[in-house]
Amino acid sequence: MANPQHYTGLIERYKDRLPVSGSTRIISLNEGNTPLIQLQNVPRLLSRSVDIYVKFEGLNPTGSFKDRGMTMAVTKAVESGSQAIICASTGNTSASAAAYAARAGIKAFVIIPEGKIALGKLAQTLMYDATIIQIKGNFDQGMELVKVIADHAPVTIVNSINPFRIDGQKTAAFEIIDALGDAPDYHCLPVGNAGNITAYWKGYQEYSSDSASHKAVTGKRPVMCGYQAAGAAPFLAGKMIDNPETIATAIRIGHPQSWDKAWAAQKESGGWFDKFTDDEILAAQKLLSQYEGIFCEPASATSVAGACHDIRKGKIPEGSTVVCTLTGVGLKDPDTAIKQCANARTLTIDAELDAVKRAILDNM
Length: 364
Fold this sequence. Notes:
about 375 residues; alpha/beta; Rossmann fold; six-stranded mixed sheet; about 40% helix
């Protein structure tokens, strides 16, 4: 039988680079160690010689990258004696916070915008037994409430304004370097609250600065490319925006909390921001599913929409190694997926061998 000690989460794996001690009680669901999948068919469709990888964070325990930061945030909350955590969320953060609170044996409170959360994410949060507070407003309004709530109630905030969240999320960059042997040339991410682009850049900076003890042999750092939905694109507007709107619910955010740090990541890396319509985002989601067998949620596909666009335009040159972060699994938002497939070919036939055979042969 395999030794269960071999199956550990990211805190155990990278504890020399995280703010924990030997006495810290680690709250983990064995998150991290997500696959870095090289795309085989999409580059051929682009007719470009590039190596494109996707870091599929949808294969974390609750189906999104949020688990990386949440294991650290909840671990430190418990270490400080906290009995409850709180977050504002468009869905993924609430699911992750609720799961890790359940694991820790503490209470979770989540503030969500009424009617603006994908059903897969809401189902998770309900099943993990969090207390859900729906507000008649958007995520940004919920975030403002959360930022002051700790002064009025004994709860620990676990949104990405909690620095331990960023510490956990930066480990994805460590894993990419470990897998590739070096940093990629370009790293493409969806941008909503902007904690993830901030965390990856921090991770690349830290890991590449210590090449002697790790696999980052050249000390290279990637160009950071952040992509937003056209209806929720404050980085393209150059200012915060009210009432953001997009089908990509995970990035439906107009007031990013990591605003300054995301700008720093873009400028220091020589990168850029861009935006894409909902139709372009959904097309990228379907492209990944149909040509690579990878099913991500709409917000995740924004990174692929951006990478494909910039590869076609030559902004990302041939010969480059590109990593796209896929932040969540497609089952987070099944309604949107099903609506996209309304015209899919579905055959209803008699339960007879000849009928099945004809259906197959006629559709080869």
